[in-house]
Amino acid sequence: MQPPLISIFCRWPEAGKAKTRLIPGFGAEGAAAIYTKLLAHTVEIARASGVPFELRVTGAPPEKFRAGLGDNLQIAKQGGGDLTDRLSRVRAPAIVIGSDCPGLTPEVLRAARDTLLDEDMVIGPASDGGYYLLGYNKPADFAFAGMEWSTDSVFAETLKRFAAQGIRPTVLPELSDIDTAADLENWPEFLP
Question: 5-182: which CATH topology?
Answer without folding.
Answer: Spore Coat Polysaccharide Biosynthesis Protein SpsA; Chain A (3.90.550)
